[in-house]
Amino acid sequence: MIHIAIVEDEPLYIRQLQDYITRYSQERGRQIKVTVFSDGEDITDNYQADYDIILMDIQMRFMDGMTAAEKIRVLDEEVVIMFITNMTQYAVKGYQVDAMDYVLKPVEYFAFSQKLDKAIGRIRKKEEPCLMVPTTDGLQKLAVSDIYYIESQGHNARYRTAKGDFHARAALKDLEGTMEPNGFFRCGKGYLVNMRRVDGISGNDCLLSGERIPISRARKKEFMERLIGYMNEG
C-alpha cells in the first residue's frame, strides 16, 4: 500500500486531490492510503517517516511548504516530495530540498496522474527487501543487500552484514527457504551466502567481503552456475 500525505490549507484543493487520488487508485488498481494535514506545522510536529509521497502546498498560513520540506528532509531522505502551487518561482526552489516535481494550480487530473506515475516509479526503484531479525536486543531491520552471508553457529545464526554482525536464534535449514528467493545459496553445511555479494572464487572457497567461505564439493557445480547467472544480471 502506498501512503500519501496531503499538506494543504484550502479545503477545495484537499477535496480535489482526494478525488483525484481515489480515481487514480481505481484506474491503476493500486491501494493508496491518504493522510491530510492543513499546515506544514502539522506534519512536521512529531513527524512520522511512514509516508511514501508528500503533496505539499507551498503557501500556507503558519508554516510554508518550503520550510516544512526542509525540516522533513532532515528526518526523512527517502520520501518523495511534490509541491502543489500556483507560483512557479517558488516551485523551482523545491529542488533545494530534492523535491521530485511540482503541480500547478488549478490542478488537472491528467497532468496529476502522470506525475503520480513518476512518483510511484521512484518509490518502486527505492524499494528493497528487508528482514526483521529477532536478536537478543529486540528486532533488527536489515536490508537484504547489506547481508554478506549467514553462518550457522549451533542453534544460532550469525548475520555478517555491512553494518556489523547480528546474532539470532535460528537454524540455517529454516532460513534457507526464506533467503533463497532473495538471492542466497547454501554453499555448504554452515553458510548461506548472498550471491550478489560474491567477489570471486579461489580453489574451493568463494571470496566475499574480504573473507573466504568454503564451498562443499557437492554444491560447487550449482554454485558456479548460480554465480554466473547473477554476474550476467548486471
What descriptors fit this protein?
about 230 residues; alpha/beta; five-stranded parallel β-sheet; 7 helices
What is the straight-line distance between the termini?
29 Å
Approximate helicity band: 25-40%
Largest sheet: 5 strands, parallel
- Pick out the low-confidence regions: none
Based on CA atoms alone, the radius of gyration comes out at 23 Å
Strand order of the largest sheet: 2-1-3-4-5
3D shape: elongated
Order of helices and strands: EHEHEHEHEHEEEEEHEEEEEH
Count of helix runs: 7
As a percent range, the share of strand residues is 25-35%
Structure in words:
The chain has 234 residues and is α/β, with parallel strands linked by helices. It is 35% helix and 33% strand. The protein has 7 helices and 15 strands. It has helices at 11-28, 40-44, 65-75, 88-92, 109-126, 172-179, 217-233; strands at residues 2-7, 32-37, 53-57, 80-85, 101-104, 130-135, 138-143, 147-153, 156-161, 164-169, 184-188, 191-194, 200-202, 205-208, 211-214. The longest helix has 18 residues, at 11-28. The chain is elongated and about 70 Å long.
Q: What's the topology here?
A:
Blueprint: E1 2-7, H1 11-28, E2 32-37, H2 40-44, E3 53-57, H3 65-75, E4 80-85, H4 88-92, E5 101-104, H5 109-126, E6 130-135, E7 138-143, E8 147-153, E9 156-161, E10 164-169, H6 172-179, E11 184-188, E12 191-194, E13 200-202, E14 205-208, E15 211-214, H7 217-233
Parallel strand pairs: 1-2, 1-3, 3-4, 4-5
Antiparallel strand pairs: 6-7, 8-9, 8-12, 9-10, 11-12, 13-14, 14-15
Brief summary of the model shown:
The chain is of the alpha/beta class and 234 residues long. The protein has helices at residues 11-28, 40-44, 65-75, 88-92, 109-126, 172-179, 217-233; strands at residues 2-7, 32-37, 53-57, 80-85, 101-104, 130-135, 138-143, 147-153, 156-161, 164-169, 184-188, 191-194, 200-202, 205-208, 211-214.
